[in-house]
Amino acid sequence: MTSCTGCGLVLGFKKYKFNKLWRVPGKFCKPCMMLIGKDWDDHGKITLPQRRCDLCQTEFYFLQVAWQGQKQKHFCDVCHKVAISGVLPAKSRKEMTNKFPIPMLIIGGLGAVLMVLGALFTLIGTTS
């Protein structure tokens, strides 16, 4: 399923696109289509800023506000439903670091050693 580029609402069979305005990418629900079309008519381009959803980190034009713990955050439609249901913990976990797990490094190192040994075997084995 595709979602609205404006608010993140999950779209069914009814999707709207700016057919003649190819500079406006994405598919929209009807309310977002009307607001973005009005902005286009007023300014000749889209002046509405795209902001990232605090949960899924996807850019949308229209975000909804909800409280998560002590902080006010901005969510797309799908993440807003999750946030107001109370499923999200008050304290979010720390950001995941970009470290590789140690077993993955060991397996990668063994793979590299086997590739080097295979290349040496091929080069040395063909000379005799």
UniProtKB/TrEMBL annotation:
Organism, as annotated: marine metagenome
The protein, known as: Uncharacterized protein
Transmembrane segments: 100-124
This protein's UniProt keywords: Membrane, Transmembrane, Transmembrane helix
